[in-house]
Amino acid sequence: MTVQAMKFASEFRDPAAARVLLAAIAAKADRIGATRESPVHIMEICGGHTHSIFRYGLDKLIHEGVEFIHGPGCPVCVLPMARVDECVEIAETPGVIFTTFGDAMRVPGHRKSLMQAKSGGADIRMVYSPLDALELARRNPGREVVFFGLGFETTTPSTALSIQAAAREGLTNFSVFCNHITVPEPIKALLDDPDMMLDGFIGPGHVSMVIGIHPYDFIPRDYGKPLVVAGFEPTDLLQSVLMVLTQIAEGRAAVENQYARVVPEHGNPVSLAAIADVYERRPSFEWRGLGEIDASGLRIRARYAAFDAEEKFGIGYAASSRNVPEIEGCACGAVMTGKMKPMQCPQFGRGCTPEMPLGALMVSSEGACAAYWQYSGARAAG
Amino acid sequence: MCLGIPGRITAITDEGRLMAMAEVSGVRREVSVACIAEGGLAALVGQWALIHVGFAMALIDEDEAAKTLQALRDLGEAQETLEQMALSQEALA
Amino acid sequence: MALRDTHVTMAHGGGGRAMRDLIDEVFTAVFQPPGSEDQARLMDDALQEPGARLAFTTDSFVVTPLEFPGGDIGKLAVCGTVNDLAVGGARPLWLSAAFIIEEGCEIALLRRIVATMAAEAAKAGVRIVTGDTKVVERGKADGVFITTAGVGVIPPGRDIGAAHIRAGDAVIVNGVLGDHGAAILAARGDLALSADLASDCAGLGHLMQAALAAAPGLRAARDCTRGGLASALNEMAAEAGVTVEIEEARLPLRPEVVGLCEILGLDPLYLANEGRLVLFCPPEQAEAALAAMRALPEGEGSVVIGHALPRQAHPVSLRTGFGGARIVDMLVGEQLPRIC
Question: Which of A376, B58, C220, C297 has the most Cβ atoms closer than 10 angstroms to its Cβ?
């Protein structure tokens, strides 16, 4: 046999169930009159969902009247170049051990990526967990260990809990460079954009595991669009699409939870308490491709200043001084908001390839451009 | 920020620090169970949780999982019924 | 025994008595090369046959940690070069082994590595006939670097290679994929993952001979080392001008490898293997090839995983469990663990 059964994962990869769901989706799409020329636009917010869609070939299997708009839920993709530059600056400081998730290693900065800084001699180490960065700090008391805190609400609690642990232990050589961002705010920004045509949302399953399902209530309430919180296995995604289409067919708009086996209605109390204790909202934060969005980024509270890399390294976030322009010709913003498909970007396959990426959507494994390139084989036209 | 995988908690490794051993398909890693420890640590052993970056972040609700799978099975049966109905209608026509 | 040191020092690379003692005791006494000149002088009858060709290959080996479940750098060094010869249809004959040793390396470790190499060479039916030793300062090498070169003989009339692959050919691998890459990742320790994983490192010379005997029409074979199965298939498909279609449901994978990949966000198709080959043979000879391969321990898990097709848009594609398809691209840089 081949892929062995993994509990709570394999059952949701059942091909027979997928075929049934695809047929049901087709029937529903026909019923609401969705066609290739006039499709239903469903945005999957989370990059992990984008990755699943392409990995399982769902984009090619699904009824042609359903079009996935790939949303901005890829924290690597929305990281402004200036923040990468700051990471490199910190990493190149003598005595620093800079720790990061693998996802961020290849994102281009203005001068270099973290990968390039590493080959230039900076002590940059990939870790699986902020707990591993904590352990490095314990074992290397003479070095300053900095953890690159990247990610949405799924990952925010883990750095918060790690900072709390560092505080309890009285560690003096551990800090976090906080770039955590939140999901609901950019969604509101997209919905307020008159150019966006969206009929429904596939909601981020693991973000919701932390924040619950009610932060999305404003979407059906104020904008009349349905949102279904989805798991990451192929049948989870397909079932969620069916649930969105069903709401549209019935003229309803509500938040529904397809991923109830993992997502509690009100989220995780311990995670939420840790986030509230350690972090506060910045007035605004820059999102690559989306510009400044109010209250969408987190920073470490004053009481934990000893663990704030921005304090320790004198790198403050000040929007006015950090408005570093993006790369000429890079259309990541348009692609990320669904206004352009990756293949329509003039750089796709020409000035921007996985080997030499211009923008983050080609670097990150869940960026739409990388996904199209890797799994669909899309290449530059002509 | 999504790569989470269900894993089984096999043992508590450090009560004070709320750490436990989790296993995914035979691969073992020590994880923090701070997020799921409300019901007591001992009760966690043998349970399944969603593991993300070294933290067990949510207990997996086996009933809900069963319900989701049942819904898929029901859909399958409903479709079969519809197909059979369509077939017999054709036969009668 | 003249050698009393426990660790290698710069003196051991100096060309004097210390170096002589190290070489004599640690290397020569075990490998027992023929003669004592700077060059090995060799002959094999098979080389004299009209139409026979010499096969010649080399590889360098760097790995951390030096010893890991399932083997050590020495095992990699012998099997890697033996395999590079074997997949070309050659009978491996002789190996050279050059060592670059970091000052401070434990001599006991060197002895273990050399012992492994001797054992693997004997298993593969090759002799290590010449070599070299250098010592570099602390910090200039990761413990030990090994370079092996190998020479073999291709019998007259045998000409296998990717260019011979044709649409319809069956694609066969000799067992579960990704064990070596996964084992090394787990053994490194920095990810704090533990699993019952061992490298699949093995010599494949006998396996290739068995496959060639059972399936004389065998078209091509390659070993799936860095970059995994996906890279080997991409290279071969591109050279052959075909598209290789593999079926996800048929890929043999150990549950622990699947688990590790799920946790780290890796694709097992890109994990390194050190005892795996992929071969193409005419479809009507696939059963015979499988039977012959499965009779050997290194071939127990041999299976057909796909077929070659006339060239389509991309060299390699994968059919998923639901009849969906996606391409399997060349790896860009290293595969990195991800959390998204």
Answer: B58
Cβ–Cβ below 8 Å for C253 and A60: no
**Strand ranges of the sheet holding C242-247, from the earlier edge strand across to the other edge:** C220-223, C277-281, C170-173, C303-310, C242-247, C316-319, C325-327
Domain, as residue range, for A342: 332-372
Its sign, for the CA torsion A357, A358, A360, A362, is negative
Q: Which of B1, B17, B64 faces A75 most closely, judged by CB atoms?
A: B1
DSSP string, C267-335: -GGGS--SS-EEEEE-GGGHHHHHHHHHTSGGGTT-EEEEEEEE--SSSEEEE-TTS-EEE-PPP-S--
End-to-end CA distance of chain B: 55
Which of the other chains make 3 or more beta carbon contacts under 8 angstroms with chain B?
A, C
Are C304 and C290 within 8 A, CB to CB? yes
Angle at A259 between CA A258 and CA A262, to 5 degrees: 160
A3 touches chain C (CB under 8 A): yes
A126 in the same domain as A92:
yes
Backbone angles phi, psi at A69, to 5 degrees: -100, 120
**DSSP state letter for A352:** B
Question: Which residues of B15-91 form beta strands (DSSP E)?
Answer: 19-24, 27-32, 48-52, 55-59
Lowest mean pLDDT among A74-78, A254-258, C237-241: A74-78
**Percentage of chain A lying above the pLDDT 70 cut:** 95
Contact A105, C332 (CB under 8 A): no
Q: In the numeric block, which tokens belong to residue A16? A: 């027979």
Number of domains in chain A: 2
Nearest to B28 among C194, C262, C265 (CB): C194
Name the token pair of A282.
């910045």
Is the CB of residue B38 less than 8 Å from the CB of residue B52? no
- Residues from chain A that touch B57, judged by Cβ atoms under 8 A, are 154, 157, 206, 209-210, 268, 271
- The DSSP string of A90-120 is HHTSTTEEEEE-GGGTT---SS--HHHHHHT
Cα separation, C241 vs C237, whole angstroms: 6
* Residues A86 and A159 placed together within one structural domain of the fold: yes
Domains of chain C (ranges, CATH numbers): 10-37+49-154 (3.30.1330.10), 162-327 (3.90.650.10)
Residue A89 lies in a domain: yes
Is residue A39 one of the residues assigned to a domain? no
Buried b (16+ CB within 10 A) or exposed e, C281-294: bbeebbebbbebbb
Predicted ipTM beyond 0.95: no
DSSP state of C94: E
- pLDDT tens digit sequence for C232-258: 999 999 999 999 999 999 999 999 999
Residue A324 counted as domain residue: no
- Preceding omega of A184 cis (within 30 degrees of 0): no
Say how far apart CA C205 and CA C82 lie, in whole Å. 7
pTM, whole model, 2 decimals? Answer: 0.91
With left for phi above 0 and alpha for psi between -120 and 50, is residue A133 left, alpha or beta? alpha
**What is the rounded distance in angstroms from the CA atom of residue C260 to the CA atom of residue A13?**
18
Q: Are residues A274 and A368 in the same domain?
A: no
Beta-carbon contacts of residue C134 (< 8 Å; ≥ 6 apart):
C13, C98, C99, C100, C101
Q: In what order do the strands lie in the sheet with A96-100?
A: A124-126, A96-100, A144-151, A174-180
| A66-73 and A40-46 strand pairing | parallel
- Kindly provide the residue ranges of all beta strands, DSSP E only, lying in C41-143, ordered along the sequence: 53-61, 67-68, 71-72, 91-102, 127-136
**In C, what residues contact A, Cβ < 8 A?**
190-193, 248-255, 258-259, 262-265, 313-314, 320-327, 329, 332-333, 336-340
Task: Give me the half-sphere count of Cα atoms (radius 13 Å) on the Cβ side of residue A256.
Answer: 21
> Which of C313, C326, C337 shows the shortest C-beta gap to A54?
C326
Q: State the DSSP code for C151.
A: E
